């Protein structure tokens, strides 16, 4: 059984994951309208990842006999300044999410909830991958100064990303 505090914090994270999903879907729409179809695809896959993260929390709360509380999703930004800016904002956002996951882990430790600690470790590891993947793309974009033939090739690469539900593997 989850403590009330643990349940509340896990529910807050469901909302944060849905906000992230909206954030990336909005980026996908922006990039699509800027003619960057590859980037739009990458962000759409990122959106799907965030939904899978939210659902993993959802399923866990139910599994532990808790109550899911789906709260309103606040509005997300809708305009950025090119692909470098998009990936800078993505990295900043993922660093923020890492902080949220660490806070959740702190709560699990304080509540002596060893099961939640074990569950949250998946997200701790996932965040390492998320930050590193985004940093790599950002470095590449900076190498080509976010323009010209280099941008064309990177955008083509971003178009190859496909959604794999890592919560199930
Ligand atoms: Fe749900 Fe991008 O971390």
Q: How do the strands and helices of this protein lay out in sequence?
A:
Layout: H1 4-33, H2 37-63, H3 82-110, H4 114-143, H5 148-158
Bound molecules: MU-OXO-diiron (FEO).
- What structural class do the secondary elements suggest? mainly alpha
Beta fraction: under 5%
CATH superfamily: Ferritin, core subunit, four-helix bundle
Instruction: List the bound ligands.
Output: MU-OXO-diiron
Terminal-residue CA separation? 25 Å
Care to count the β-strands?
0
* Mean of residue pLDDT values: 97
**What is the element string, with H for helices and E for strands?**
HHHHH
Uncertain segments are none
Continuous helix count: 5
Give the CATH class.
Answer: Mainly Alpha
- Oligomer state of the chains in this structure: single chain
Shape: elongated
CATH topology label = Ferritin
Largest sheet: none
Rg to the nearest angstrom? 17 Å
Total of domains: 1
Secondary structure: helix percent: over 70%
How would you describe the overall organization of this protein?
The model has no long low-confidence stretch (mean pLDDT 97). With 169 residues, this protein is mostly helical. It has one domain (4-70, 79-163): Ferritin, core subunit, four-helix bundle (Ferritin), CATH 1.20.1260.10. It is elongated and about 55 Å long. The chain contains five helices and no strands. Helix 1 packs antiparallel against helix 3 (82-110) and helix 3 packs antiparallel against helix 4 (114-143). Bound molecules: MU-OXO-diiron. The site of MU-OXO-diiron has 7 residues, from helix 1, helix 2 and helix 3.
């Amino acid at each position: 059984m989850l403590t009330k505090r643990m349940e509340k914090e896990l529910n807050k994270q469901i909302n944060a994951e849905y906000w992230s999903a909206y954030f990336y879907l909005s980026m996908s729409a922006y990039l699509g309208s800027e003619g960057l179809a590859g980037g739009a695809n990458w962000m759409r896959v990122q959106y799907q990842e965030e939904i899978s993260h939210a659902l993993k929390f959802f399923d866990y709360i139910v599994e532990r006999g808790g109550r899911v509380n789906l709260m309103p999703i606040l509005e997300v930004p809708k305009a950025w300044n090119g692909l470098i800016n998009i990936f800078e904002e993505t990295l900043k956002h993922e660093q923020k999410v890492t902080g949220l996951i660490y806070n959740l882990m702190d709560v699990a430790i304080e509540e002596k909830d060893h099961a939640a600690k074990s569950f949250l470790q998946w997200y701790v590891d996932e965040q390492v991958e998320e930050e590193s993947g985004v940093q790599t793309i950002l470095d590449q974009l900076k190498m080509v100064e976010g323009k010209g033939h280099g941008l064309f090739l990177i955008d083509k690469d971003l178009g190859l990303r496909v959604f794999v539900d890592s919560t199930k593997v």
